[in-house]
Amino acid sequence: MTYRTHVLGGIAVAAMVTTVAMGGQFEGLPPLTTPAIFGSFIAAMTGSVFPDIDQPTSTMGRTLPIVSKMMCGTFGHRGFCHSLLFLIVIYGLTAAFLPSMSFYALMLCFGAASHLFFDMFNRPGVPLLWPFKLRFRLAKIKTESKFGTKRDNLQEKIFRLIVAALDVILILSMAASIWG
Q: What is the pTM of this model?
């Protein structure tokens, strides 16, 4: 999936988790303020593109080129960074170095999990149980590409449209729980 599709996934997961958090479902979490809600969306959206740190040509790879080249050279694209172990490591490191931000570390990981879930709709799938080679795939949607035909690119565009519609519904639901 492309950057835009992954960001929409981050928005969806942020809306879902924030709605649950506002309902008091997370024990020990203080009430969410508007800045905290905004922060949860930023964390989830950042997480939604973070696994592509292992791809130097990706938006995240171009943002952190040295880290990206190291990750790509060590693990390759869709290796360690597309696994459950990566999510655990990211949460552990973020929570350890920023303990007061553990909710945002969780949101970062939920966003990254949405990335892995969306990539399971692509032909290659994802190695959730890395270092084991087993790949998980739910469908064979062709990723939008500047080299793809309009017909090829249509698959991801339709998928993105569905996710965008879901985002609108989730955000309206979240807004209703805030003002309702």
A: 0.90
